[in-house]
Task: structure prediction
Amino acid sequence: MENSFLTSLFNSTHKKDNFNCGKDLLDGYIKRQASQDAKKRLSACFVLINNENNVIGYYTLSNSSISRELLPLEIIRKLPPTYLHLPITLLGRLAIDKSNLGKGVGEKLLMDALKRAYLTSIQQVASLAVVVDPIDNEAISFYEKYGFIIIPNSGKMFLTMNTISKLF
Result:
């Protein structure tokens, strides 16, 4: 399996000031918080840039855990009962600049994130699934198209690494 990615780690050379996905929370994150979170090791921000080094999309990944009680019975049945919290990869944010909507950039970023999370889970740090916390119904619909399952009463969605492994 090839380790090439479309994205690179966000750094000070990337131009972010004109990024506009239309969601203040996501626009503000890349402009004001992403570099601080990286320095504090809270999340890693990966960016897709154009020829002028402008950020046209980004996503964040971090390690996290989820209570086994939140996952469907068919998944937790297969796991040892001693694991009360299960290791996951959090896909915390994913955003595309408005100028690139409808060009498949969102799918490319998601696949890049899933591949990165999967490879990390088999090569470096174990993870049962990728979990997202969709910002709105539009985001829920986007993730559902790729097989993410809603976790009842949590506002979160997940996709297991076993499912992700079939993509790569």
Notes: The first helix runs from residue 24 to 39. The longest strand covers residues 55-67.
